[in-house]
Amino acid sequence: MTLSRCSETSCDPCLLTCSPRSGTSSRPCSGCPLLGKMTQFLPPNLLALFAPRDPIPYLPPLEKLPHEKHHNQPYCGIAPYIREFEDPRDAPPPTRAETREERMERKRREKIERRQQEVETELKMWDPHNDPNAQGDAFKTLFVARVNYDTTESKLRREFEVYGPIKRIHMVYSKRSGKPRGYAFIEYEHERDMHSTTQLACS
Which stretches does UniProt call biased (Basic and acidic residues) (predicted)? Predict the structure, then answer.
């Protein structure tokens, strides 16, 4: 591949490009007739990129620059306006804003107090003797905690029935979501079976 200059004398010899068809490298100047032959094959959207822009609008020169203009009132200090200020003795006392730590502590105390009120209200309404959900004999009932949420009643029965016949299994579920709470009550037919369960299971 060789380098060739544009045929026009006004072309810059340093502005050269490669032409893969002819094997030479040349770039015509803006006034070269070769550029007109090349642009006539361009689509309209590319021809719009070569269109000249609108001329810059003419604006008359400024008479004076901003820093050269004369101000009618000279600059002065704030001493004449001090008497307009508020008397510090009449100013209201400054208000202290609550910090992030104080706000978190306040919310924690409010949450504890609110929960205590809910517990006191529930204790007043709690009547274990007239509770329809409280069934069975407490001396024959075994409390099982930390139960897997995927555990079913049949699995509990299969694991605890080896210690004695089971009368009833009650798994506790959430009233809001209906999901298991993770503990259950197992009532045996005989009290001795319940005691043997605690002794054998913990040994």
Answer: 97-116
